[in-house]
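Please check the following for our workbook:

***
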Amino acid sequence: MASAADLKDALARCATGDRAALRIIYESECPPMIGVAMRIVKRRELAEEVVQEAFVKIWRNAHRYDAALGPPKAWLYQIVRNQALNVLRDGRREDLVDEVPEDATSEASIEAYNATQRLPETHALRRCLEGLDTKRRTSLLMAYVDGFSHGEIAGRLAVPLGTVKAWIRRSLVSLKECMG
């Protein structure tokens, strides 16, 4: 693991086009950067892609690093974090969803139904959830019970990303009205 001084020096050398300096940063920081990216994007393959893109940005923007604004690690990890968040916003995460079986929609509906059924029959949330359209309820529960991103839900249900976002947004509004 390189020290702050080593990283600062390596960034200065990267700014002048020294590829060996980029290698120093890579060897020192790549594994923890992948860990940071994985915490955000949740997939190893995607985290590796995020870090690769981050290193391209580090190489191209090393001249912009200003030690007066903070330590080099903070600058490096901010690039990784921003790149990971950009990937999530772009919806590229759905491209790496595992193969979706043909009956995935019905399986997801069954899982969503089971999640709803675990609530007591007299519970207001159960009543409100049961009042939602099946697809909307399924997408909402996949997001909030199973923890899937909008892109992953779109991939698993084989519907456009915008549709999933609209279903979830409308479902939340409906639940709020029903519960209120």
Observations:
- The domain at 104-179 is CATH 1.10.10.10 (Arc Repressor Mutant, subunit A).
- The two ends are 54 Å apart (CA to CA).
- The longest helix spans residues 19-41.
- The chain has two domains: 4-90, 104-179.
